Amino acid sequence: MATVSEVKDEPGQPPALTALSLAETAQQAKATDQIVTPFDVSGGVDEQGKPKAIDYNKLVDTFGSKRIDKPLLERFEKVTGHKPHRMLRRGLVFSHRDLDQILDKYEKGIPFYLYTGRGPSSDSMHVGHTIPFEFTKYLQDVFDVPLVIMLTDDEKFYHSPKLTLKDVYEFTKKNAMDIIAIGFDSKKTFIFADTEFVDNGDASAFNNNVREMGKRTTVNQIKGTFGFNESNNIAEFGFPAMQSASGFATSFPFIFGKDPKKVAKIPCLIPCAIDQDPYFRQCRDNAPRIKYIKPAIIHAVFLPSLRGSESKMSASDADSSIFLSDTDNQIKKKIGQAFSGGQDTRELHREIGGRTKVDVPFQYLTFFMEDDDELERIRVAYEKGEMESGGMKAACTKEMQEYVRAFRERRKKVTEEVRKEFMTPRQLVFRGMPAESDRIDTIAMKIRNLEEKREENQNKIRICDEEIRKLREENKMLREKS
After folding, report:
1. Quick check: helix, strand or coil at residue 389?
2. Is residue 85 pLDDT above 60, yes or no?
3. What average pLDDT score do residues 421-435 get?
4. The pLDDT of residue 440
5. Given phi > 0 = left and psi -120 to 50 = alpha, else beta, which region is 306?
6. Which end of the chain is more exposed for a tag (fewer CB within 10 A), N or C?
7. How far apart are CA 391 and CA 26, in angstroms?
8. Rounded distance, CA 317 to CA 324, Å?
């Protein structure tokens, strides 16, 4: 089986770009623009060949999304009655498409659902992978809505020359157990692996939506959005239609009911990292053509690599990432080597202070420390030079060790039986679930099917008994003659 270190990053996963590799590239070609796609993420380099941080304001303008501003956060709190998640408060979840419309519908009592996912390219997730899932869990708890989590093992197989179907499915099972350990409610959450679900009888509606989207997506659209060319395999061109299908409630009749006209009106909200936006722009462009609601999207920033904010944490670069399977000592060592915003000398640091905007340990605290007041105290002390880099790294180490330690304890409770429960197609329990009459009809249909099977089996038994009787009579006659 392929190991973490052997597998290069693929679409939807943090690329193994580092400040060093970007600087080496810059020696040959001076300034380069930032790149943010499902396949590649880097901040680019400036005219001096220095790596640049990712400019999220520029991404909002380039992608055509909207900033999550203070009025929207105030409305979110008013509508939900809940304090915005720390990632919302701190601008780490920063951009959206139609989140305001989701709030409108929620106010009117119109149900919606959440959809997110992961491409399993390694057997262990890192803390950067938990960010969209932790935020998704918050949304699920606040809104009391069902959640669909798509594990795109087929996508990883298509894009990764070294990975086998066996590899990606093994990764999928382990990643599913990691995701469950974030704390999702099994009554409200359905997790599925593409390679397993699409061949299941429950996926017929899902597959039809894949066909509908595939028919309306052109090769030129895919080339323009993802940069594909003639060297990409045909499965890669078709996959965006697969990822789009999960954004439509009609793909999951066992969750939302079997009335397509009614179910088609149920909107979807997709929490994801900003690099996944191209997939869902394709989905939103084509949704009206099949008379579906465009899914809403909410974007998160990337957790930076331990090496610096010019790239994001990478599963294929163990030294750039903190894995959920890391020990306390491994976490301490990695954070100790993380890029610091401290000055070159202690005297200079005390004089002008540290740079929190580029300090990786402080950036990690903004993602994982819940206490706003404590985070502000640390920021002020560091920028004034009262806290040194060692103190910043110690605070980050403590926070990350506690976070990963708590995860490990939850992960121990996720058995194979628990995983199978989450990954079994079934009716979920949530506010606004299908009417009782629909459920009664479904149960009645299942009873009729079972009764038909029982009758069919009884007929087979009667035919078998008759054949046995005839053979016994013939045997008796032959014996009497002999």
Report:
1. helix
2. yes
3. 85
4. 58
5. alpha
6. C
7. 33
8. 14
CA dist., res. 393 & res. 396, Å (int): 5
Contact (Cβ atoms closer than 8 angstroms) between residue 299 and residue 95? yes
Which helix (H) or strand (E) segment is 189 a member of? strand 189-193
Q: Which two tokens stand for residue 480?
A: 């009497």
Is the pTM higher than 0.85? The answer reads no
Rounded CA gap, 400 and 127, in Å?
9
Residue 201 CB partners (closer than 8 Å, separation 6+): none
Phi, psi values for residue 100, rounded to 5°: -60, -35
Percentage of residues of the chain with pLDDT beyond 90: 66
Distance, CA of 339 to CA of 444 (rounded, Å): 62
Q: Which residues, other chains included, contact 437 with Cβ-Cβ below 8 Å and sequence gap of 6+?
A: none
What's the pLDDT score for residue 312? 67
The DSSP bridge pattern shows strands 308-312 and 147-151 to be: unpaired
Cα(134)–Cα(230) distance, rounded to whole angstroms? 38
Q: Where are the alpha helices (DSSP H) in 90-148?
A: 99-107, 127-143
Nearest to 118 by CA among 246, 284, 1: 246
The whole-number average pLDDT for the span 463-473 is: 85
Place of tokens 């709190």: 77
DSSP letters spanning 445-479: HHHHHHHHHHHHHHHHHHHHHHHHHHHHHHHHHHH
- If DSSP codes are grouped into helix, strand and coil, which group holds residue 177? helix
> For the segment 183-240, what is each residue's pLDDT rounded down to a tens digit?
999 999 999 999 999 988 899 999 999 999 999 999 999 998 888 999 999 999 999 9
* C-alpha torsion angle, residues 393, 398, 399, 405 (rounded to 10): 140
Instruction: Extract the tokens encoding 108.
Output: 């009117």
Q: What is the mean pLDDT of the chain?
A: 88
d(CA 412, CA 426): 25
Cβ neighbors of 425 (< 8 A, separation 6 or more) are 190, 192, 197, 200, 202, 203, 252, 254
Scan for tokens 């890669």, then name that residue: 236
CA angle at 430 for the pair 93 and 251, rounded to the nearest 5°: 80
Q: At what angle do helices 70-80 and 99-107 cross, to 10 degrees?
A: 30
Of 340, 374, 370, nearest in space to 357 by CA: 340
Helix H or strand E segment including 190: strand 189-193
Q: What is the pLDDT of residue 437?
A: 46
pLDDT of residue 28: 53
Q: Distance of alpha carbon 147 from its chain centroid, rounded?
A: 11
